Amino acid sequence: MKYKLEVTMSNLKTLSVSVASAIENQIIEGVLKPGDQVPSEQELIETYNVSRSTLREAIKSLVSKGTLEIRRGKGTFVCQLPGMTEDPLGLNFMGIDNLDPYLYEARIIFEPEICSLSAQRATDAEIKILQKLSDSIDELDKQLQGEETDETIIKKLYEKDKAFHIMICRTCQNPVLERLMPIIIQSISLSYNPSTFKNRLTKKPRQSTHNKICKAIASHDKDQARALMYQHLYNSIN
């Protein structure tokens, strides 16, 4: 299918903007979904009837906006969260050495209520994913006990913990929160430090609260889910 691009000037910049807009519209309309591979360069040139340089300029602009990503040797793909840059809040430019206290404070404001929504809205399939993540966290936690330093396990535990919280955000069925909270949660990785993370692990109760949170969500106990998430985050920063 060929597209007729309506432009008022036949210069490279105007054409590339039009092509980028057309590709964005396909993503918005669901023709291209997050994770999908974009058609080849030649296919896109034929589809939009533009030159190679114009198409590359359009792709470059979409990559810079966090809409597309180029994987070497594989092709161009739609980002999992189209339109989101790596640091959308500009935290790297705030000039604050340790943002963790502020990020956790923001999480304490939002996540307990998100967890409550999750307890009301999570599907059985989503709960199974949460339980699997919780089990992985508990297993890694057991491996870490008694180890003086094992940065590989600490890193895996950190990533699983992050995935657990992001999954809860996805199960709350609120498209705004599904996008907002992962930004805050993943921003903690900007200042990730294995020693700091391990210190947090040693301060928390030996029995992981992840499994308790998961059970509260599975039993659709919104009040218990809210309370457990608040306590979990409070323990992480105190």
From TrEMBL:
Keywords attached to this entry: DNA-binding, Transcription, Transcription regulation
Q: Which CDD domains match?
A: WHTH_GntR
The family database entries (Gene3D superfamilies) matched by this protein are listed as: GntR ligand-binding domain-like, Winged helix-like DNA-binding domain superfamily/Winged helix DNA-binding domain
Q: Which domain of life is it from?
A: Bacteria
Q: Which residues form the HTH gntR-type domain?
A: 13-81
Transcription regulation as a keyword? yes
Q: Which InterPro entries match?
A: GntR_C, TF_FadR/GntR_C, Tscrpt_reg_HTH_GntR, WH-like_DNA-bd_sf, WH_DNA-bd_sf
Classification via Pfam families: FCD (PF07729), GntR (PF00392)
**Which molecular-function annotations from GO does this UniProt entry contain?**
DNA binding; DNA-binding transcription factor activity
Protein name according to UniProt: FadR family transcriptional regulator
Q: Which organism is it from?
A: Hungatella hathewayi
